[in-house]
Write a structure and sequence with these properties.
Elements lengths: L1 H6 L5 E2 L1 H5 L2 H16 L7 H8 L4 E2 L8 H7 L5 E4 L3 H10 L1 H5 L9 H8 L1 H19 L6 H22 L5 E4 L5 H8 L14 H42 L1
Parallel strand pairs: 1-2, 3-4
Length: 246
Amino acid sequence: MQTALEQLGYDPCYHMHFSFQNPMECEMWTEAFNAKFHNKGRKYTREDWDHLLGHCQAVTDVPTAAFIPELYEAYPDAKVVIVQRDPEKWFKSCQQTVMSFAGSGNFPGSLEMPALYLLDRWLCRRLAPMMGIMFSSLFGSETRDPVKVKENWIQGYNKAYDEVRRVVPEEQRLEFSLDQGWEPLCKFLGDEIPKTPFPHKNDSSSFQDGRRVLLNRMWIRAFKMNAPYVAVALSVAAAWWWQRSR
């Protein structure tokens, strides 16, 4: 959906992976989740949302999907596209994508993430808390019972959709399935239909490709942050070896 909206000119379209690359966004999302779901801190205002999302022309995916009522209140002229998916297939997709990457409290996620948390302080202090509070707020308490995990996630999915339908007026929302292609989406948004085929990139294989790119960026960032410490350690080791070999 992000790719489709950007092809229509709504570029950039905010997606969860944006927050993975920006420590300050992680802190703001953590504040927003605390305020809405845990009554900690103040409710976000239009000014706050402008600061966090004002550079974007559209938003999709979590964490923004958790705040559609708040975003609609801040931007009452916005149009909302409800992407219809089978909850069972959606959960399976989550297992193969976001759960396999970052973990959810219910799943360990990528084996690389603990090492990155150790090497990159902003990941540990900002990204990890944001992911933790996002999953717990939307999908309930932590459990390793796979049956209960699935129940929690599907219940959270349905609750979020019901909330959007309750808050956003019918004339400002579109019930949309990706296999419908460009026509209903463009008609709803008032855009011309592109000549290119409707993109279908939200599958597990394309996610894994993006996941690898993102992890590589994280590793590069971690190495850059720790390069001075590695250089000092190597210098000390070299000096120690030179002293012993004299």
